[in-house]
Amino acid sequence: MHYYKDIVFEKPLPEAIRRLGLLPADLHFHTRHSDSATRVRDALKLAARRGIGLAITDHNQTSGVAEAERQKIRVPLIPGIEVSANDGPHVLFYFYSAADLQDFYRRHIEKNRRNGPFTAIHLDTADILDRREDYSCIAAEAHPCGYAFLNRGVQRCIAGKCIDEEVFSRLDALEVICGGMARSHNLKAAGLAVAHSLGRTGGTDGHLLHELGGVVTCAEADTVEELLDAIRKRKTVVIGRERPLVEKAVMGTAVLPHHLPYAVPILQARWEQDLPRIKRFVRARLNG
C-alpha cells in the first residue's frame, strides 16, 4: 500500500486541524436541491458548529448555493457544482464568486440538462472544460476511478478509450478521498494525482446530514479564495475516511427514490455513454 504525506486516511478532527492554522472544508456535499433530503440550512448550521467550510455541489444545479448565500450563516461557503458529463466523468467546479457560478450555470449547464436533473447533461467532458475557460474556477474530477454502475470516472473512461488521457492536463485537481468510494479506488486516485502533478481535494460526497465533514480538504487559508488558490498550487492536505459498507447502503437507499422518477433519461444517458464501447467491441469481433 502506498502512503502520501498530504493524504491522511483518518477521521478528521476540525478543532485540532484549525489549531494547526489550517482551514478544513468538505468539498463535496449534496442537498435537497439535488438527490438528497438534506436541507441547506441544516448543512450550514452543522458546518458552522463543526467549524468547517462547505462546498454545496449539487448535480447540474446551483439553486442550493443560491439558497445558502441567502441564509447568511457564518460558514466559509465555496460556490460549487458537480457536472455530469455525457461521456461519463463527474467534474466538480469550485468558483471564486457565486455570481460567476450562476453565470456559468445559466449559459452552459442549464440549457444542456436532460429531463433527468441528476443524470448526464448533453455535453462531453472536453466541451464542459472548454466552457469553463472564461471563468476563474477550479476543476476537479470527482471519484476518478468511478462508482460501479453509476459513473465510470475519468480513469475508467480513459482505460475504455472513451476519453483521451490529455484530459488530465485540463484539470486542476483530483478528488483523492471520496467518502463513498473504496480505499483501493481512493489510493489509485492519489497515485493519479501524483503522476499528473494535479492538486488534491477530498469530500464526503455526502447526501445525509450526519455524513458532512467526514472528509475534509485543508489548507493554510483564512478565506475561500486562499483555499482555492492552495488547491491550484497543490498545497492542500486531505483528511478523512470512507464510509462503512452499511452506511453506503443506507445512503443508497435514501438516494434511490430521487432517481426512480427519471429512470428513462438515466437509461438513455447510460446507452449514449456505452455506445462507443459497444461499437468498438462489435468492430473488433467483425475484424477478428
**The biggest beta sheet, please?**
10 strands, mixed
Q: Report the average pLDDT across residues.
A: 92
- In the sheet with the most strands, the strands line up as 1-10-9-2-3-4-5-6-7-8
Helix count, DSSP H or I runs of 4 or more residues: 10
Low-confidence stretches: none
- SSE order, as H and E? EHEHEHEEHHEHEHEEHEHH
Roughly what fraction of the amino acids lie in strands?
A: 15-25%
Distance between the termini: 39 Å
* Molecular shape: globular
Number of E-state strands:
10
Class from helix and strand fractions: alpha/beta
Helical amount: 25-40%
Radius of gyration: 18 Å
Strand and helix layout:
Layout: E1 7-8, H1 14-19, E2 23-29, H2 40-50, E3 53-56, H3 63-71, E4 77-84, E5 90-95, H4 98-109, H5 125-131, E6 137-141, H6 153-159, E7 173-178, H7 183-195, E8 199-203, E9 215-219, H8 224-232, E10 237-240, H9 245-259, H10 263-287
Parallel strand pairs: 1-10, 2-3, 3-4, 6-7, 7-8
Antiparallel strand pairs: 2-9, 4-5, 5-6, 9-10
Tell me about this structure.
This protein is of the alpha/beta class. Helices cover 40% and strands 18% of the residues. It contains ten helices and ten strands. The chain has helices spanning 14-19, 40-50, 63-71, 98-109, 125-131, 153-159, 183-195, 224-232, 245-259, 263-287, and strands at 7-8, 23-29, 53-56, 77-84, 90-95, 137-141, 173-178, 199-203, 215-219, 237-240. The chain has a ten-stranded mixed β-sheet with strand order 1-10-9-2-3-4-5-6-7-8, sandwiched between helices. Helix 6 (153-159) links the parallel strand 6 (137-141) and strand 7 (173-178). The longest helix has 25 residues, at 263-287. It is globular and about 65 Å long. 50% of the residues are buried. The model has no long low-confidence stretch (mean pLDDT 92).
